[in-house]
Amino acid sequence: MASAEPLLPDGQEDGVKGWCRRACTSLAKGLALVLAVVFVLVWIVQAIVWEYATIGCSPDRLKDYDYPGGGEDDAGGKKFNLVPMISLLAERKPMWYGDAFDVIPSNEASTVAGAPVGTWWRTTGPLFNTYMYEDVANSQPTVMMRRKLIRLGQCHVIERCDGSGDAYTISEGANYFANRFRKWLGMTQAMSYKIYKGDTLVAVAEETQNGFESISFRNITSRRELASSVLEGRHFHGQYDIWLVDAQKKDADLPAYVSSAATLLYAFFVMHQRGHKIKVDPNGPEGHGSHDGPSLLAATVENVTVANVPSEIVGSGLRAENRVPDQLI
Ligand SMILES: *[C@@H]1O[C@H](CO)[C@@H](O)[C@H](O)[C@H]1NC(C)=O
Ligand SMILES: *[C@@H]1O[C@H](CO)[C@@H](O)[C@H](O)[C@H]1NC(C)=O
């Protein structure tokens, strides 16, 4: 029967198959080699970027340092907090060597209460970004943050340059799936992160993405608010984002630099989102008449101080938490 005959004579089919196999093997080997070389190169570049980004961040440069610009509260002094208790994070004009947010002392009325005391720099690397806080007084780096790789979701570790105390970790961890799901459903409390001191879970950071861009930091046991941040405006000096970080809360044992660093991550995230989604009015700092479309958010936040934002918006963490079950049912 014709159908039982092989399409090609035995020898020829073998030849084609064999050639294919050999070609595929050498292609795979070549590809593996290229990947290995790229992998090594990427790590070398990352190591160089890391070295560059962390220049000056070492304990011997911080012996007897008085940490100018640091805030003081019941939990600790300047050395403990490193940044003011209430501060503004103001986006800077991007530079070739990195993006940055200035840290400006502020107050309950969320106004500028002095000259910038420090700057958070971001240095982009091929594998992860490095963030460094440098004070203005001596251009001295005092705390840095970097992403931890091979983790589920986002995970950043914050370490003091003087090497004292435990490192703090902001981790999405197992919240990863819940976070994506909530975001997909468009819930008010879009993201939730855990904050560890060393290995101990001490707080949660809950982000609100719809309406107001804000973060609420809460004590994991007492649920008391430890700090809060809110996107104050999108037209600082015409076109830059400005965030208010308030770490001045009663009985809060969280250093101010932790809430500042966590807010910084979110500020960068929102800043990049703006490029795609939220249009900035180039005609001026006020953004009048833009009460529709994607710039609604900018218009809403504009010219609002935390003092007159309804409390359910500023301290929305708990409220959002309570709402989640209703919406899921
Ligand atoms: C959280 O609250 C507990 C009990 O009130 C307290 O002992 C702890 O220090 C608080 N943690 C932080 C990070 O403030
Ligand atoms: C912002 O607030 C000030 C003082 O309350 C007011 O004079 C000004 O018109 C406001 N700007 C906008 C854009 O609403």
TrEMBL record:
Domain of life of the source: Eukaryota
Transmembrane stretches, start-end: 31-53
Keyword Transmembrane on entry: yes
Keyword Transmembrane: yes
UniProt KW keywords: Membrane, Transmembrane, Transmembrane helix
Protein name: ElmoC protein
Native species: Symbiodinium necroappetens
Gene that encodes it: elmoC
